[in-house]
Specification:
10 helices, 12 strands, six-stranded parallel beta sheet, alpha/beta
């Protein structure tokens, strides 16, 4: 980390109400606050497209008139794009969008884009491994605790209850000394949960997503040493890697190949994560020797390139 500036740094975070998008911007904001002593963050709801286009045209952004002018205006999600631009035009600062934008890249000061979106790095583009998230590797990571994170069918993945249940049984039986917690997602088929309840296991506890509170998964990752994640849940794979646990991949049918699945294959080929098929054949270790911290890496770039320039 380079020498940090002593001045106050003001960040406006444009939010669209979608937890996935807000977690991305929260990850970057938290990383900036870890790195700098004087960061002030203000959350601003994204304006409707119709109103914010007018504000951009006349050079106003009245919702933030009473706030200190920003050094950075950060947002994730297409609904934040025009608010980012209107805020920058009216109040200055640099506009940072955390995704491959629907507008031309050059209209933003920086686009933070996952490698799986297949955008060439260059001026105004910062490439990350997966989307940013607010997790960290701090935690006890008890070797006797592990976690199953179950997704569901998607446009790129199908589902096979019998195969997935069989994988879970094999993994829990192979480590009788480990206590496994399992949670589902909103996409998990109800029939799969019924199949799970038939598993006779002393070291598996099933907690459906409806019974978990906000932050439950992050808390479990901090306590666990290992997480097995269904391959459809790629964002959760990156969250688990960021949290510092070893990561195994539960296999589900793949309908189509995508940039996202190609990114997962890269992780497998590099030995960053271990797929079930390799674990069965080789009993390969799933230690996470170097947790990801892409939010910190991005924050470090912002500090070095922009916030230290004065």
């Amino acid at each position: 980390m380079s020498d940090t500036p002593q001045k106050r740094v003001v960040v406006w975070r444009i939010i669209d109400g979608k937890p996935g998008h807000e977690n991305q911007s929260l990850g970057l904001v938290n990383a900036l606050m870890r790195c700098l002593p004087g960061v002030e963050v203000f959350d601003i709801p994204a304006e409707t497209k119709a109103s914010v286009l007018w504000y951009w045209m006349i050079g106003r952004f009245p919702v933030a008139n009473n706030l200190p002018d920003p050094d950075l205006v950060i947002g994730a999600g297409h609904a934040t794009h025009f608010s980012l631009l209107a805020a920058r035009r009216a109040h200055g600062g640099r506009a940072v969008v955390l995704m491959k934008p629907s507008l031309p890249i050059k209209v933003f000061d920086l686009c933070v884009i996952p490698a799986h979106d297949d955008v060439e790095p260059g001026r105004g583009v910062f490439i990350t491994r997966g989307v940013l998230n607010p997790l960290s590797s701090e935690g006890v990571h008890d070797p006797k605790k592990a976690l199953f994170l179950i997704g569901g069918p998607s446009k790129h993945h199908g589902w096979d209850d019998e195969s997935l249940v069989s994988q879970i049984i094999d993994i829990t039986k192979a480590s009788p000394q480990v206590s496994f917690n399992l949670t589902t997602s909103r996409r998990t088929p109800g029939a799969f949960l019924e199949q799970l309840k038939k598993i006779d296991s002393d070291n598996l506890c099933i907690i459906p997503v409806e019974q978990t509170a906000p932050g439950w998964v992050a808390g479990q990752l901090a306590e666990s040493s290992l997480a097995w994640v269904t391959e459809d849940s790629v964002s959760m794979v990156y969250e688990a890697l960021t949290s510092g646990v070893g990561v195994g991949i539960l296999e589900v049918p793949r309908i189509t190949n995508s940039h996202v699945s190609a990114g997962l294959e890269d992780l497998i080929n590099e030995g960053v994560v271990v797929p079930y098929r390799r674990w069965v054949k080789e009993s390969e270790s799933y230690r996470n020797e170097k947790p990801l911290d892409e939010a910190w890496r991005c924050a470090d770039w912002l500090i070095e390139k922009w916030l230290n320039e004065n």
